Amino acid sequence: MGSGIHRLIAVALMAVVLGGCVAPVRTDYLAQTNLARCHSFAWQPRNLPTNAGPFQNPVNGERLRMAVTRELATLGWSQAPNGSVADCIVSAAIGVRQQVVDGPYSSLGMGYGRRGFGGHFGWDLDAPYVYEQGSVAINVFDAKTHEPLWHAAVLRNVTTLTGADADRRIRSAVEVLFEAFPAPRP
Fold first, then answer.
1. For 76-119, what is each residue's pLDDT tens digit?
2. Interatomic CA distance for residues 109 and 107, integer angstroms
3. 58, part of any domain
4. How far apart are CA 11 and CA 5, in angstroms?
5. Contact residues for 159 (Cβ-Cβ < 8 A; gap 6+)
6. Residue 47, class by beta-carbon neighbours within 10 Å (0-12 exposed, 13-18 middle, 19+ buried)?
């Protein structure tokens, strides 16, 4: 009976801890922005992958472009053929930066093993906590005026992922970003 209560407590604590892990989408656009004028798009010119930072994965950059292209197609946008003028310019990026949080910070660990439920809670008042914060961002600009029309970003660290995991997480992040898109869908 006691181990059942311990399991219930563990599940409840994990739900509380994981419930706080949902990263909000940050989106911004000017009130007078009219995204309905965008029917075609071109990608913002990019550097060759060899000019990218030494730790960036250009394959994930291409996965991001494909995911954004799919979402834009659901809005009725089409990619302008090379050499033609598009209505809007789109850029997308995956990034990561180190964040340093001054103490105090706490840590929580728990688990269930052969000897039952166990865990720890720690508190450090002085030491800084360093972690990597990843994000996926999309920007839309007016192709003629270069005026920024829409920005959206979500905290997701996909920089170290590869293969099917990277593809799934990148598509998921892009879908979440486009849920906040301010233009009507066809």
1. 999 999 888 899 999 998 877 666 776 665 666 666 666 667 67
2. 7
3. yes
4. 10
5. 55, 56, 57, 60, 94, 95, 96, 134
6. exposed
Distance between CA atoms of 166 and 122, rounded to whole angstroms? 33
Q: In the numeric block, which tokens belong to residue 12?
A: 């409840």
In this structure, are strands 40-43 and 78-79 parallel, antiparallel, or unpaired? parallel
Query: Structural domain tally of the chain?
Result: 1
Whether 137 and 93 have beta carbons less than 8 Å apart is answered as: yes
For residue 157, is it within any domain? yes
CATH code of the domain covering residue 108: 3.30.160
Taking alpha carbons only, the member of 24, 42, 48 closest to residue 155 is 24
**Each residue of 53-78: pLDDT tens digit?**
555 678 888 999 999 999 999 999 99
Q: Could you tell me which residues come within 8 angstroms of residue 123 by beta carbon, excluding any fewer than 6 positions away? A: 104, 105, 106
Q: Domain range holding 63?
A: 24-179
pLDDT for the residue numbered 48: 43
Does any domain span residue 122? yes
**Furthest CA-CA distance within the chain:** 72
DSSP-derived secondary structure letter, 50? G
The answer to the question of residue 95 being in a domain is yes
